[in-house]
Each structure stands twice: as structure tokens, then as C-alpha cells.
């Protein structure tokens, strides 16, 4: 019973440390996003993924050609929050032909992001797994 | 045992409420432009705080504090790429101490320090330093001299602005050791100047006419209702012209407990902010304020710049060790335009003159019962000792460093 006296004290000290260290949520919350993309289409080639913003600002995220059935390398970026991603692709399995773009907005929570691109009719379907 | 548990319950309850607020409120993002210009804002704030402490020019002052944000959705950054979750931060401390080097002549040194910016992680010492974060520190130091008999103060020193990390989205900025400043006060009038190499950055003229008991003025009466006015002129670039001018008017409305404060920009901007501040005790250790700030947003539409403005209403509660604020004008101006979220600042500041304690810029000191207790030990009888603000019928004693002045409330005294 005597030892139990220290438990609230230790908890209180711990709470103080948490508060005084400005909280330390990054110990258990991801502050970067690691993206890998899988081309799950049969006849499209992915040329890359960019983050696009206002005034035609953009930043390349996945800068790699991904053929049908393949996956890209994992690329880590300091992007956590609400962003618009732009997918550049061609409607051919070998990457030839006209470059097309598709954009979609996402709220990224950080950590490992595995993006699967599927074709659905004429358009592409984005799915994070 | 009971004490700790109730303490813990209190802490956890406060944390829960903060988290609930943070989760419920959809905070507006802060912009890189605000972060980019914060060096100048911080240097200006340092000098205005130094002006407040130099009203006496002697004694001492300590200050420290930091914003505590439990959730990273509270201060998102709006860059050209999107809305980044993360933490705006500001850690600050300040200190001033002066000693009497000759009769009525005090010399001292002061140091103000701020580290502020935005980062993807919450931290106390080691930030993430990501592609979008900015960390900047500003140091202001100086030496002071005060002649109490002639009632004047001279202080001067340097300011150092150091960008420890700049993300890709911010404009280039030089680290600089080359800011210098000087402050001259004669009685209730003071002037400040701030230079970058040979170019001026800031001139501020202040008339603190209000009578302040801590510096030997009146405790009540019409002289305490005189206004405190200041005019600040800013120059943001290397050209010689004035880029903006701001007049600030602080007015005691009731018993040095209720104040109104209005800031007005003399250039095209016009009204900037107004605040109604209530201090339960004139020592200003605890304060409540309601503020209104006029925001001006500039938009570029085709070739012309269109400006819109709206009013931001908010308030803050300062409880000596912690300050809670929502949309307060102070935080909008000094914390990168943060709005739409509850902010908690863990802080402490205290000024002292001749052993009396008070908050920065306070007109009167806190009632100090410790001195009264000391007197008790010296053998004074119990009935003579009453606190300063006791009822009118009781005899009043005013204590100062062991010397006791008495105003007899009743005649005779056997």
C-alpha cells in the first residue's frame, strides 16, 4: 500500500512533462507521408504523381513510370494535410501516346500510404489501402 | 493523496476540454506571408515590452512562456500546395535586472529572446525542420541606466535575428546581427529607435501620462485617468520613407482595473484593433479582455489589388501562469494571424521595483501580505496590523521595507 502513494505523483509528473515538452505527439503520430502507388490497370501507364496547388504550382511526388501491374518505389514527403494530387498517365500499356491527367483531393494523415489505381470504364479509380 | 488525485483530475479535465475544443473548432490556416514578416513583428514587440519595463528603469523583470497546442489541426499552414497540418510555435523568455551603483543611479542589463515559427511536429527543443517549416529566433539585449532623482532612463543595445531553418516556400532572409536600438525616457515621455545598419526601421514616441503608484504616482484620482498614447513609425525596407504608422491609445476607464485600448493605423488602413481589458487587481497579474480586430485581406484580381476587410471578435483570459485566448487581437498580431481556434499559452511574467511585485505595465503593485507578517514578528501588536485594502473603519498601515507609516483611523489611542 505504501508504494501506491507514489503512483498519482508519478502520473502528475508525467502529465507535467507532457505539457512542458509542448506535448510529444510526434512520438506516436506520423509527420510525413510515405507514398507508394500500384498500377492495377490493364492498359494504362502511370507517368507520375504530383501535388498541385494554386497558380499552377506543383511539386513532383512520384517521378517514375509505372507500367500495368507494377508498383512504384516508396517516396517520403513532408505532406500531411489536405492536398490535391495529380496523376499523369497514358492510355497505353507501354507509355506511348498522349499524356492525360486526373486530379483528386485527399486528406492525408501521414504514415504509409499505398495508392491503388484501377480503371473503371473510361476513368481511373483512386483507392488508398 | 487526495490532493494529487484532485490535481490529476483537474489536469485531465482541462486537457479533455482543450482537446474537445481543438477537435470541434475548424481553425483557419496561417499563411507563409505572416511567418515571413514575423521577425519584424517580434523585434517591435520586444522593444514595446522594453518600453513598458523602462517606465521605471530599475528593479527587475522576468518573463517566459510558450503556446501549447494539443492538436495539429489548430494551426494549419496554407501554402500554395495545400493545407499542411502542423504547429505554429512561440517560445519566449526575457529578463531584466538593475542595481543601484550610486545614490539614485541604477544600472542594469536586459535580454529578450523569442524562438518562433511553424513546424510539422510539436517539440520543445528539436523541430522536424521539414520542407514547409520555418524557425526563427530573435534576441534583443541591452544595457540600461536610470537616474531616479532626475527621472530619466537611457537604454541601448543590439538585436539579432537568426533564421535557423527556412522551408522552400519562404522568401530568402539574411541572418543579421546588425540591428541596433536605443531608448530614452524623460519622466513620462519616451522615445525609441531601431536601426538596421544605417537604415532606420522603427521610431516610437510614447507618452505614458497615467499616474502609476508603482513609480511613485497616485493610487487614485483624476491623474490616474490620463491617457497613455504612443505613435510608432515603421520602415519595412531599405528605403527611407515611412511604410506604416500606428497610434495606440490606452485609457483607464475605472479605478485602473478597466481599460480601453485602441490601435489606429494612420496610413490607408485606418482602424486596426480595440480592446476592453479588465484586471481584478491593478497589479495586472490576472486579466480578462475582449478584443476586436479589423482584418484586411488583399486579393490580386487580374491586374488590380482588391482589399476586403472584416472584424474579428475575440477574447482572452490571463491567469498569471496560463493564458487562454480565442481570436484575440494580440494573437492575431503576434502569433502569425492565428484564428478560429482556442490557444493556451503557458506563461509567467513578473516585474519588481523596490521589492513590490506587479505585472508588466501595471500601475499598482500586488498587495503583499508577507511584509505585514514580517512586521508582526517584530513585535507589533495584532490589532494594529491590517491589510492595505481593508475596510475604512480600521486603522490603516502602509508598509515599505520595515518602515511603517500609520494613518490613525480612530482618535485617542489610550
The share of residues in extended strands of chain A comes to over 45%
- In total, the number of strands of chain A is 8
Largest interface: A-B, 33 and 36 residues
Low-confidence parts of chain A lasting 5 or more residues at pLDDT below 50?
A: none
What is the domain total for the residues of chain B? 2
As a whole number of angstroms, the C-alpha radius of gyration of chain B is 23 Å
N-to-C span of chain B:
52 Å
Describe the SSE topology.
The complex is a heterodimer of chains A (129) and B (414).
Chain A: H1 6-20, E1 33-39, E2 45-52, E3 58-62, E4 75-77, E5 81-90, E6 99-108, E7 111-120, E8 123-128
Chain B: H1 2-24, H2 32-36, H3 38-53, E1 60-68, E2 77-79, E3 82-84, E4 87-102, E5 105-119, E6 134-147, E7 152-166, E8 176-186, E9 189-196, E10 199-208, E11 228-234, E12 244-254, E13 258-265, E14 270-278, E15 286-301, E16 304-319, E17 322-326, H4 329-334, E18 342-353, E19 356-358, H5 369-377, E20 396-400, E21 403-407
Antiparallel strand pairs in B: 1-4, 1-18, 2-3, 4-5, 5-6, 6-7, 7-8, 8-9, 9-10, 10-11, 11-12, 12-13, 13-14, 14-15, 15-16, 16-17, 17-18, 18-19, 20-21
Descriptors:
heterodimer; A: 129 residues; mainly beta; Immunoglobulin-like; four-stranded mixed sheet; four-stranded antiparallel sheet; 1 helix; elongated; B: 414 residues; Porin; 2 domains; 16-stranded antiparallel barrel; two-stranded antiparallel ribbon; 5 helices; 21 strands; globular
Amino acid at each position: 500500500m505504501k508504494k501506491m502513494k507514489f503512483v498519482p505523483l508519478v502520473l502528475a509528473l508525467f502529465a507535467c512533462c507532457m505539457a512542458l515538452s509542448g506535448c510529444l505527439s510526434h512520438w506516436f503520430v506520423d509527420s510525413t507521408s510515405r507514398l507508394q502507388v500500384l498500377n492495377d490497370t490493364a492498359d494504362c501507364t502511370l507517368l507520375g504523381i504530383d501535388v498541385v496547388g494554386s497558380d499552377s504550382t506543383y511539386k513532383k511526388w512520384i517521378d517514375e513510370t509505372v507500367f500495368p501491374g507494377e508498383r512504384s518505389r516508396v517516396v517520403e514527403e513532408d505532406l500531411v494535410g489536405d492536398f490535391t494530387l495529380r496523376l499523369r498517365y497514358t492510355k497505353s500499356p507501354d507509355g506511348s501516346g498522349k499524356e492525360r491527367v486526373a486530379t483528386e483531393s485527399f486528406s492525408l494523415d501521414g504514415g504509409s500510404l499505398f495508392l491503388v489505381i484501377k480503371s473503371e470504364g473510361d476513368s481511373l479509380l483512386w483507392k488508398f489501402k | 493523496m487526495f490532493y494529487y488525485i484532485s490535481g490529476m483530475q483537474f489536469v485531465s479535465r482541462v486537457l479533455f476540454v482543450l482537446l474537445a475544443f481543438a477537435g470541434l473548432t475548424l481553425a483557419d490556416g496561417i499563411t507563409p506571408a505572416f511567418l515571413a514578416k514575423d521577425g519584424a513583428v517580434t523585434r517591435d514587440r520586444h522593444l514595446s515590452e522594453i518600453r513598458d519595463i523602462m517606465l521605471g528603469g530599475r528593479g527587475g523583470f522576468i518573463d517566459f512562456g510558450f503556446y501549447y497546442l494539443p492538436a495539429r489541426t489548430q494551426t494549419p499552414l496554407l501554402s500554395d500546395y495545400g493545407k499542411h497540418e502542423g504547429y505554429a510555435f512561440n517560445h519566449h523568455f526575457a529578463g531584466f535586472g538593475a542595481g543601484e551603483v550610486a545614490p539614485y543611479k541604477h544600472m542594469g542589463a536586459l535580454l529578450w529572446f523569442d524562438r518562433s515559427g511553424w513546424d510539422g511536429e510539436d517539440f520543445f527543443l528539436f523541430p522536424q525542420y521539414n520542407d514547409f517549416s520555418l524557425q526563427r529566433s530573435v534576441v534583443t539585449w541591452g544595457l540600461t541606466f536610470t537616474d531616479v532623482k532626475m527621472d530619466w532612463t537611457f537604454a541601448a543595445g543590439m538585436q539579432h535575428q537568426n533564421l535557423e531553418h527556412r522551408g522552400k516556400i519562404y522568401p530568402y532572409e539574411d541572418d543579421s546581427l546588425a540591428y541596433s536600438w536605443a531608448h530614452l525616457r524623460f519622466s513620462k515621455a519616451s522615445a525609441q529607435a531601431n536601426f538596421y545598419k544605417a537604415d532606420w526601421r522603427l521610431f516610437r514616441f510614447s507618452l505614458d501620462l497615467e499616474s502609476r503608484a508603482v513609480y511613485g504616482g497616485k493610487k487614485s484620482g483624476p491623474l490616474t485617468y490620463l491617457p497613455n498614447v504612443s505613435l510608432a513609425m515603421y520602415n519595412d525596407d531599405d528605403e527611407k520613407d515611412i511604410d506604416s504608422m500606428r497610434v495606440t491609445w490606452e485609457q483607464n476607464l475605472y479605478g485602473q482595473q478597466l481599460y480601453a485600448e485602441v490601435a489606429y493605423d494612420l496610413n490607408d488602413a485606418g482602424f486596426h484593433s480595440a480592446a476592453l481589458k479588465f484586471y481584478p487587481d491593478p497589479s495586472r497579474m490576472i486579466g480578462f479582455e475582449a478584443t476586436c480586430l479589423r482584418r484586411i485581406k488583399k486579393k490580386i484580381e487580374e491586374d488590380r489589388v482588391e482589399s476586403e476587410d472584416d472584424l474579428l471578435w475575440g477574447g482572452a483570459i490571463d491567469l498569471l501562469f496560463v493564458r487562454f485566448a480565442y481570436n484575440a487581437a494580440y494573437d492575431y498580431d503576434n502569433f502569425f494571424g492565428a484564428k478560429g481556434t482556442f490557444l493556451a499559452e503557458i506563461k509567467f511574467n513578473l516585474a519588481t521595483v523596490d521589492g513590490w511585485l506587479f505585472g508588466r505595465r501595471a500601475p499598482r503593485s500586488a498587495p503583499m501580505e508577507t511584509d505585514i507578517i514580517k512586521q508582526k514578528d517584530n513585535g507589533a501588536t495584532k490589532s494594529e496590523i491590517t491589510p492595505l485594502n481593508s475596510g475604512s473603519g480600521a486603522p490603516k498601515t502602509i508598509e515599505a521595507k520595515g518602515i511603517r507609516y500609520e494613518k490613525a483611523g480612530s482618535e485617542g489611542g489610550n
